[in-house]
């Protein structure tokens, strides 16, 4: 399943990281990392453990504030904006570790993702029976049901999130992230811990989000088969520095990437 076959991304820059650095005390997590993600692109970030991938995503989402550099989203500097403000601008994310409300139903977990789209206030709440808040809730419920159908989780829609299998919980977390209908979604290892069938399903959902729902995707993923199959472009980090960026085939063929990520030894150097 090739992402590129669904239509190439535009030349319009949606997000730009400009020389982003991040340090925790004396430890440098990122050093002057720069890249641009185009609107409509499925962009993957790869690298060995500890390379700075999640740190980069955390800087984009607002969980971390860069030590230096800046992040532009839709042409606006969002470097110091709070995560909630970035969500309101159309930026969503999932987490490497599941962050669902275990004692809430699948339906209610997804409704949480609609929070930033709610326009109801005290006045419209008082006019509930005249159609204000009630109509708004019905609209959001319809949007959630569309997501449930898309991710094929109708059979667990009323189940408690904490009772689901790991693969289904990953789908629910994705559902909650896309409930905001973000223009850009950050996926932190969406297929980690899944079996082959679950990975194939998740890859299909991500490609469809990009191609059919028009969401730009930045994805961290360790499965090179998935990365090669669905990404438009790939960036490689190693020890917090960017060592390669480009189309998947070209990046994978880069000797620096093969040494850093795949652990291959340069035969000439070894000789």
From TrEMBL:
Pfam families: ABC_tran (PF00005), BCA_ABC_TP_C (PF12399). It comes from the Bacteria. CDD domains: ABC_Mj1267_LivG_branched. InterPro entries: AAA+_ATPase (IPR003593), ABC_AA/LPS_Transport (IPR051120), ABC_transporter-like_ATP-bd (IPR003439), BCA_ABC_TP_C (IPR032823), P-loop_NTPase (IPR027417). Keywords: ATP-binding, Nucleotide-binding, Transport. Residues 15-264 form the ABC transporter domain. PROSITE patterns: ABC_TRANSPORTER_2. This is Branched-chain amino acid transport system ATP-binding protein.
């Amino acid at each position: 399943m090739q992402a590129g076959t669904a239509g190439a991304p535009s030349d319009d820059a949606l997000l730009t990281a400009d020389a982003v650095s991040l340090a925790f005390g004396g430890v440098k997590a990122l050093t002057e990392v720069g890249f641009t993600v185009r609107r409509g692109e499925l962009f993957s970030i790869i690298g060995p453990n500890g390379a700075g991938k999640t740190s980069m995503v955390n800087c984009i989402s607002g969980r971390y504030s860069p030590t230096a550099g800046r992040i532009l989203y839709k042409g606006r500097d969002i470097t110091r904006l709070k995560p909630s403000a970035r969500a309101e601008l159309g930026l969503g994310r999932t987490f490497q570790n599941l962050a669902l409300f275990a004692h809430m139903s699948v339906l209610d977990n997804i409704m949480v993702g609609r929070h930033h789209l709610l326009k109801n206030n005290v006045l419209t709440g008082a006019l509930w029976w005249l159609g204000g808040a009630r109509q708004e809730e019905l609209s959001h419920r319809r949007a959630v049901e569309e997501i449930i159908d898309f991710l094929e989780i109708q059979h667990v829609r009323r189940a408690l999130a904490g009772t689901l299998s790991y693969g289904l919980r990953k789908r629910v977390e994705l559902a909650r992230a896309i409930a905001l209908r973000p223009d850009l979604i950050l996926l932190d290892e969406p297929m980690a811990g899944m079996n082959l069938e679950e990975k194939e399903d998740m890859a299909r959902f991500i490609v469809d989000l990009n191609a059919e729902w028009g969401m730009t995707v930045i994805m961290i993923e360790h499965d090179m088969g998935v990365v090669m199959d669905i990404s438009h472009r790939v960036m490689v980090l190693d020890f917090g520095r960017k060592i390669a960026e480009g189309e998947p085939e070209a990046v994978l063929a880069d000797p620096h990437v093969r040494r850093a990520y795949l652990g291959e030894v340069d035969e000439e150097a070894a000789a």
